[in-house]
Write a structure and sequence with these properties.
14 strands; binds adenosine-5'-diphosphate; four-stranded antiparallel beta sheet; 11 helices; about 300 residues; Rossmann fold; alpha/beta; Alpha-Beta Plaits; binds magnesium ion
Amino acid sequence: MSIEVKNISKFYGKQKALDNVSFSIKPGEIAGLLGPNGAGKSTMMKIITCFIPPTSGEVSVYGFNIFDHSIQIREKIGYLPENNPLYLDMYVKEYLEFIGNIHKIKSVSSRLKEIIDLTGLGVEQKKKIGTLSKGFRQRVGLAQALIHNPEVLILDEPTSGLDPNQIIEIRNLIKEIGKQKTIIFSTHILQEVEAICTRAIIIDKGKIVADDSTQHLNTIFTPKNIISVEFDKPINKEKLLTIIGVTNIIHQQDFSFVLEAEANHDVRPLIFNFAVENNVAVLSMKKEESGLENVFQQLTNKQV
Ligand code: ADP
Ligand code: MG
């Protein structure tokens, strides 16, 4: 395992931020830490990167534990903190060289060239960081996290505040970098995890509520095809189920039904024909929206 988090709890005074969190990340995985604001994502990342200690529990990174080997862990980790703190008055190249020297990189100038190429900062390298767009600042943040060629990257909401084009660029960059590194990145956007990760760890109010491959979560998250329909007269339930594509009756109240149908199958015309054939009128019919956000909301609002 490259990262092992065991029974981590964190209190800020009386405020509980993490509650007995455990997970492990394999080498080469891109894991998304997904949760609403205040869930505890940044706190978890600050603990893994040895910025703050947990109240209880253990974390090890490539076999080193955060209490005894914080320097070794920092060497192995590249960290892009939330809000990407940068020295705005420094020039891009000057800043990256400064960070490279902190890491005591031997041939800084050749490494600078590599990293500037990788993060697409070539054109901007001679500019002051303060004059860059947010997307390019984020690239500078990624470059500083990568400069010492760490095995693990911890990225705290790396796309937050970017415009849609910049988001796509940064996501692609993360995917590219992820081919060679273990990455944990946090986000409050579900689609982001789908787009980048192989694994999703969903956290809410300091607790893990789901931890699975994105592929499997996708099957759970697949939007259901739900139709609400109200007739003017009683209808035989069994007969409703004979409509092709209708798989289940989820709810019934008087002459109103909530039906589940096969995905990608619009059963509304069939329901209409069914009503005509059975001499009842359709008073209302509606396809219910049930998207990814809904499921995420359900998962993160439920009591655990
Ligand atoms: P996220 O990154 O998921 O938005 P955080 O880890 O920043 O969540 O915060 C988790 C909880 O801990 C929140 O309720 C937040 O207000 C609280 N918190 C975070 N940092 C501090 C701090 N330094 N002092 C007190 N409470 C904090
Ligand atoms: Mg945060």
